[in-house]
Design brief:
The structure is a single chain. With about 240 residues, the protein is of the alpha/beta class. It has 9 helices and 7 strands, in the order βαβαβββαβαβααααα. The chain has a 5-stranded parallel β-sheet, sandwiched between helices. The protein has a two-stranded antiparallel sheet with strand order 4-5. α6 packs antiparallel against α7, α7 packs antiparallel against α8 and α8 packs antiparallel against α9.
C-alpha cells in the first residue's frame, strides 16, 4: 500500500500545510523526540506513523509505503543505518529517507548508508523540518507557491520525557552488558540533549568516556541511575 493508505484522492498541499497528503514514518525509540516529530507533522499537514525499533518499522513497511521515513540511528535492536541502506535499495523507493541523531558523527553514517538528508537533534524548527523534506522530494511532488510558516519552536510534552526516563530505568535495571550500556548511553545522551537536561548529558558523556578509556563504569552507572530516578520522582524540572 502507498502513502495514500487507500484514499481515493490525496489532499493537495496548502501554503500553511505544505506536507498535506504525505505520511511520515518516524522510527524513533524516544517518546520525547517522537512527540516533537508529531508536532512538526501536525503543523505541516502530514500524517505520522511511529515505530520504536527496527522490527516494528519493518512491520509497518510491509503494510504501507510512506512518503518520508525519518530514522534514528541508535535503536534498541540495531542501527538505523541498516534500515536506511535497505530502504535506499528498495524499489519503488520511498520519496525521502532521512537520518536523525544527536551524535556529531551520525550525519556521515546516515548519508553513507543512502539517506537523502539528515536532521540533527533536537528537531524543533517547523521551517527546517519542512525545508529538508520538500527539498528532497522529486520535483513533481514539491509543493508550488509561497509557504507561510511560523517558526516558533515546538515543545514536546514533558510527560514524554518522563516516559523516556522510565524506559532508561528499565534498561539500567537489566543486564548491563556492553551492547546495553552503549545503547542506554546513546539514548540518554540524545534525549537529554534534546530536552536541555545538561546534568544528564554530562553524566551520559562521562559513562561513554569511561567505556572508551577502559575505566570502571559502576560509579558512572550509579550516578546516571540516580539522575534518572530523580526525574521519575519529578524532583528535577526539565
Amino acid at each position: 500500500m502507498t502513502d495514500s493508505d487507500g484514499l481515493t484522492s490525496i489532499p493537495r498541499p496548502t501554503a500553511t500545510r505544505p506536507l498535506l497528503g504525505m505520511t511520515v514514518l518516524v522510527v524513533e525509540d524516544s517518546r520525547y523526540a517522537c512527540d516533537a516529530m508529531r508536532l512538526l507533522c501536525l503543523r505541516s499537514g502530514a500524517r505520522i506513523r511511529r515505530a520504536d525499533c527496527l522490527q516494528s518499522a519493518r512491520r509497518h513497511l510491509h503494510v504501507y509505503r510512506p512518503t518520508v521515513a525519518v530514522i534514528d540511528l541508535g535503536l534498541p535492536d540495531g542501527s538505523g543505518a541498516d534500515l536506511i541502506a535497505d530502504l535506499a535499495d528498495t524499489m519503488p523507493r520511498i520519496s525521502v529517507i532521512l537520518g536523525t541523531s544527536g551524535d556529531s558523527f551520525a550525519e556521515d553514517v546516515a548519508l553513507a548508508a543512502g539517506a537523502d538528508g539528515f536532521l540533527a537533534k533536537p528537531v524543533d524548527s517547523v521551517m527546517a523540518f519542512q525545508t529538508m523534506i520538500i527539498s528532497k522530494l522529486p520535483p513533481e511532488r514539491q509543493p508550488r507557491g509561497v509557504r507561510m510558516v511560523s517558526d516558533d519552536p515546538v515543545h514536546p510534552d514533558p510527560l514524554a520525557y518522563r516516559d523516556d526516563m522510565a524506559h532508561a530505568a528499565d534498561v539500567l535495571g537489566g543486564d548491563s552488558d556492553a551492547r546495553t550500556l552503549d545503547y542506554v548511553t546513546s539514548f540518554l545522551r540524545g534525549v537529554a540533549f534534546s530536552a536541555g537536561d545538561h546534568a544528564l548529558v554530562t553524566a551520559a558523556e562521562g559513562l561513554a568516556g569511561a567505556r572508551v578509556e577502559g575505566r570502571p563504569t559502576k560509579p558512572d552507572i550509579a550516578h546516571i541511575a540516580r539522575l534518572v530516578q530523580d526525574r521519575l520522582a519529578q524532583r528535577v524540572a526539565i
